[in-house]
Protein 1
Amino acid sequence: MMRNRRFAAVMTAVAMVAGLTACGGSGSAESESTAAAEGGASEAGEASGESGLEDGVLSVAMECSYAPYNWTQQDDSNGALPIKGSSDYAYGYDVMMAKHIADALGVELEIVKSDWDSLVPAVQSGTVDCVIAGQSITSERLQSVDFSEPYYYASVVAVTKADSPYADAKGLSDLAGATVTSQQNTIWYDSCLPQIADADILAAQESAPAMLVALESGRVDLVVTDMPTAQAACVAYPDMVLLDFTGTEDDFEVSEEDINIGISMRKGNTALKESIDSVLSEMTVDDFNEMMDEAISVQPLSN
């Protein structure tokens, strides 16, 4: 699904250098250097312009608190990048993907930390170029922003404690009567929790970490989330277990739009959408999964 779009002005730079060299004289070396520099600037400018990034910088918003998609750490280990306006760094699957896209487009990358509910407004206002933050490509969100092709596919699962009466659940019906919660403004909370019969649905949590703290503290019996978040949770909290009903007849009912994860950007930014899609088009599901496995392996508390 994704790959480099090449925007080169190399031949133009070579022609400029050759023409100036032919002029000879004591200034010819300086002219060659100037021409090369101008050619490089032209190449970068062409790449930025064609990608819809006139300043040559891809500004990406994310929560920086949603492992394994993204998280905050205190140093640049494993390739983490600085968070704009902060002494902290961000890493995770979303940062890895953002770096891959920026490198492919030949632009700089800037990571902007934003809370979940501020992500779409940040794109709409032009504060950032795009959001890479584990957003499902839902019809509701598509009314406000444009999305790239999926950069991950995430099935819906549940997480509970190992000593919970629900730990041996084999299907959705086995979760009946549980006290549950999930993250606010997600399909997990809005669409999946109501599918649990007689569930006591508590208030939505403001973030994925808060959701997991509710489970770890015993305030709820289980939470519903996506597979990567659940896998990361079970690494960070060894007393948690993942309940995956995928492939059974007793599973959560979700649509493709619920599990397709995309990159959002301002409506009408066709150049940026096409550029990002060109990069994603060269990647496979295996590429996505390998990158996600790497993110989970280096997330905080994974060692």
Protein 2
Amino acid sequence: MSRSLLIATFALTLLLCASAAQLFRSVSALASPVDPALSQRSFSFTYQVHVPPQAAADSDHLWIPLPQNDSYQSISGLKIKSAVPHSQGHDPEYRNPFVVFSPTPAQAAAGYDVTLVFHATRREHVVDVHAPALQTASAVPPDNDPLMKRYLEPDKLVPLNGTIAELARQQTAGDTTPLQKARHIFEYVVSTMRYDKSGEGWGHGDAIWACTSKRGNCTDFHSLFIGMMRSVGIPARFEIGFPLPEGQSAGDIPGYHCWAEFYLNGIGWIPVDASEAWKNPAKHDYFFGAHDDNRVFFTYGRDITLSSQQKGAPLNYFIYPYAEADGQPVQGLTTHFSFRDLDSK
């Protein structure tokens, strides 16, 4: 081999090694679920429902969401305790799992109880939003994922035109990358909204109401965030589950918690929790690119039709039980949620 060819080969090898090292650094900057530096929490969760006595009906059904396995959550030991016949299924759009109960006329007339118990391990989800790979990543979704189109479309209470679109345009003016747009939308929501559950109107995830009232709970924070993101062409999705109190090893859980993710091509889903960022100013930056392990995830999406058995309107979101008698929503269901850390003494 000639000296010039040897030098050229050596230079090419160095270039390839440098490129590989840069790629490794970029990929390594995106935390994986098995990263030992990330925290995780294992616990037992109990979901209880009481359905009050119902008048005679030709058909009665009760749907309860089931927790999901994913890269950041492992579910095991699910036990469904009820005398009522039941089966499991998925909604046709988001593929959220559920269990549906079909009581006999006698069971419906007497009222009945359902208890779900399962074990879960929830892992912290952290993405380094400063990693080089994210800075120029596009938000163009893959063509082979049918849900990606849905995550760019409006929901009933989350329009993508008018006020929401104009607000998003204003807050992202001058931005050249999806990550910049996402950051500015996040900052707008956290700095403008106020976590406030007083009065009425909050909790529906109505993006226009949130934009106008500038307050609400996690549903309202994230409806505004998701609407603004989608209106500038960035796929964003709604996720809902329950919070686990930090620093408490067992107890009751009064209600749900929801959060969001947005998509970058070649990176995947980036976690965001705008309402927790508002409530915890010291973790403001953390919650743009992270979900902690103090939560359990159940379902994706809004405007959910569970199955062909459901005759009522699509559900705004699906975390609490939903029941129908002859196609009409059943009122007066009562619930109780609790948890216990598995490593607690």
Protein 3
Amino acid sequence: MRTTTRSAHRWLGVLALIMLFATSCYTDDAATHQANDPHSRPWWCMSTGDGGHHVDPAYHGMTKGMLSWEDCTLNSVGFDLAIAYAQQWPTLGDAEADGWHRAVTYVEGMGTHHVRLEGFDPTGPGFDPDNPSFPGTAIDDYFTAAQPEFLMYDGNGADAELTGFAWFFESDSTTPPEGFGGDNDWWHRHESLCFTNSSWQVVGENVSDTVCSNRGGTNLDLSNFWMLHAWIIDPWTVQFDVFANHHPCLHQSGPAVPGDGDPCWEEAHSGGGHSEH
């Protein structure tokens, strides 16, 4: 079980940085909630879900629940910083025009996955798919709440809108990394992904080298890399489990429309859907 002190050092500068941003919705709302009702927590500090897809065995037997006010405040600050960072690119077109690479096209439950490679070529010589590293990019071995490594959009067109983001960094293959405060941030892994050699896009997960090669790709061993989603951008919040690994309204056929009566919105608020482990 992780403790609240494990990540405190990561936030020393964050508490000051929040003053740089005009929007501090989660931070302000958490403070107001604490002042008015200190015995309960706002939804993003009180989870009842089971993580959703790709729950790592490390979390077997664990449950989510109410965070301490210390952890709630820290996470609220981190959320505000991450939103301020991600909203620089409100559409897919904005992101790709500014150098974000589409590593994953739209998929059910998550949308796209865009990452900044900063000129790094993972298809070039010297890159080891069995022990990958990404020098010069944001993908490293350190968690930074204010700068998620992936942005996610609700479609493949230039006008697709930002739905969320994900943190992704290297740790080890057995112990979930330290991230946000408390024990509700359940990280997951995609241990082996097949990336195309031409465009470096994912075209398979946990497929054989032969299958991957036939798809024009190379398997990457990502067993030491961990990912975490946070659904905190309105209307794409998941209020019963803010760190769930999928959003029920990102359907295979495309995103639901807010206010259209789709029961997925109630599921995102209160839970009750089916999870895959």
